[in-house]
Amino acid sequence: HPLRLEPSVRAAVTATMHGVQHADLLFALLLAGDHLVQMARNKRYKLEPYDVHLLTNFVMSSQSFREAQSWTPLCLPRFNDRGFLHAYVTFVAPDVCLVLVSTNVAAFPALSACKQDVLSGLQSSGALSAVDDAHTRRNYTVAEVGIPSLRHFVYVNTHTRQLTNPSVPAPYVARKDRKRLFRLYEHVYARMHYAPSVGTAPGADAHKVYYHIGDAESVVGWTTAGFELYAVFSPLESKSSAIKCCNMLLRWIKKAEDSLFISSMPTY
Fold this sequence. Notes:
By secondary structure, the protein is α+β, with helices and mostly antiparallel strands.
């Protein structure tokens, strides 16, 4: 889930992280809260989104990582479920974290030096303060899209496996309402991907476009080879009107994609 960021700022972050290379370094991730700002990797290895999500939750949920630079073992099951990697973790701003991952248990001093190079580059370019400001402003709102009947949405780029969604607004402020919203997303996702009839293979008759009407809202699910979109509207919104709004939303996402998504991740 990338942090929405001005393209020039992300370019500065990318240049800094690409310039820091070490034989013991497999992956370098810059995180802002639960968002990925950028990741650099050894060209021989890849990190699956599942492992990025796991690593983000692990780092951001522990107060101890915020108090000092840390060196910790971790298992990333999609990368290797039979062994451990080692991560250098340091917070370079109150909620901005640099994670450097290695297979070498003795790489702490080397990666600590790499951290200094990254920090110097981010500070000198002004990228660190820009990232911190972008995270402090929190996520964008659905009002910025300019579609009055749109309440919320989740968009997934299936090629890069990156997603974007606005902050959760009214009428989903209460916990029970947010829970209902997320359960609706789960329901529509399941119908889009796992809707087999008796005697057919799983997914054989799953929907490409699915329209669900509930008591409190309607949800459109739309999947293609390039994206998945789940959009929430009033329960009074007709299917044709909702589809029209979804097309407007797709145009807005296309226009804003350089800030919403990470277009390239450097390798070394």
